[in-house]
Amino acid sequence: MTCPVGPEELAKLRAFIGFCTNQPEILNIPQLDFFKEFVEKLGGKVPAGEFKIPTFEGNGEQPKASAPAPEPEPEEESEPESDVELDMTGVIEGDKDEPQPMGDASKEPTEEEMDQAGEFRSKAASAYSEQNYQEAIDLYTKAIELNPHNALFHAKRGQAFLKLNKPNACIRDCNRALELNCDSAAAYKFRGRAHRLLGNWEDAAKDLRQAVKLDFDEEADEWLKEVTPNAKKLEQHKIKQERNKAERELRKRQERLRKAQEANRKAQQEQQQQEQSQPRPNAGGAGGMPNLGNLFGNLNQAEFLSAFSDPEVSAAMQDIMTNPANITKYQSNPKIMNLITKIGSAMGGAGGAGGFPGAGGFPGAGAGGFPGAGFTAGDTNTGASQKPKPDFTDDGLD
Fold it and tell me: Of which family is this protein a member (predicted)?
């Protein structure tokens, strides 16, 4: 038995059914109630929901491949100071005695206490000159307890600690002296000497320079000359370290930039390969469904729905969907034929080589269309040609 529906109509019907399979909500629009009823009569069920013409956001562009995270770079260690050759002659191990008494900082000495403190200070100076350094320390301690706000008492006791090779105790006294008097040249001098004994060359040079600046002293100047060579080596070494660090940071930034550029280049290449290997959203497949987003792209959706709201059009389309050969009934109805031509053009333009056959949409409608553009009741061949009829016939519908 010869099928009354031609291959092109079957292809369109197959594509339409495929579209409904992917977007079954389209059957919920009022204009397709007849087809929904047909499906449900056969036992099918149409899911609820509002139909929306699918679109491809971003003009169909594929998401860009994310650039790989840069690998963490190992930290480059700076050159240790031990690499610098220093003259360590005279350096001693620091003392570990308990901190010496510093007096009560909140005490306000009376005049009598200040006089007594002065007497202890004189006795301490005599003991120091006689090289009785521990006795001098004890006497300075008594003076500090009577008058804890005298910076010179702390500086002189620190000097006595130096003679006993107790640089840490000296530094504590000098720190206190500088808290009481930030311009105490003696405190800078003896603290600088204490740093020298501990091998803190840069701190020693810094304090001794300040001491000489505040109150030039030949002994302080000699001590400064003694520590300057080592201090300069360390200072120059630190300058070199800072320069090397800056250069390393610059190289790291350049390497990060290079890797980022390389990652972006690879990501762009991958994206291009993906775009080349996959069909574009607007391109029809070679035998598959057309782009669903552009299925009705050439037919205004409002115009499409408005046309189907006409009872005459809706009934005619239901009749044609039931039997495509019935299109012959409407050859003289321009309202029906114009709509069929538009639908055929829209569907035909969306498919390309596959999907809805192109070049005219529904065969028989205009340049294609539903079968039967030339079909007569006596013909058995759906492709038989007829004499073209006029584009417009006054059927009195207006």
Answer: Belongs to the FAM10 family.
Residues of the chain with pLDDT > 90, as a percent, come to 43
Q: How far apart are CA 274 and CA 254, in angstroms?
A: 30
One-letter amino acid of 298: N
Within 8 A by CB and 6+ apart from 72, the residues are none
User: H or E segment at 224?
Assistant: helix 218-277
pLDDT tens digits along 177-221: 999 999 999 999 999 999 999 999 999 999 999 999 999 999 999
Amino acid code (one letter) for 106: S
Q: How far apart are CA 56 and CA 64, in angstroms?
A: 15
| Dihedral sign (CA 342, 347, 350, 354) | negative
150-234 CATH fold:
1.25.40
Domain residue spans in the chain? 7-42, 150-234, 310-345
> Of how many residues is the chain composed?
398
Does an H or E element contain 311, and which? Answer: helix 311-322
Helix axes 185-198, 201-214, angle to 10 degrees: 160
Residues in contact with 163: Cβ distance below 8 Å, sequence separation at least 6, in sequence order: 128, 131, 133
Tell if the pTM clears 0.85, that is, is over it: no
Which value, to the nearest 10 degrees, does the dihedral of the CA atoms of residues 94, 100, 103, 106 take?
Answer: 60
Maximum average pLDDT range among 38-42, 80-84, 238-242, 313-317: 238-242
Neighbours of 96 (CB within 10 A): 8
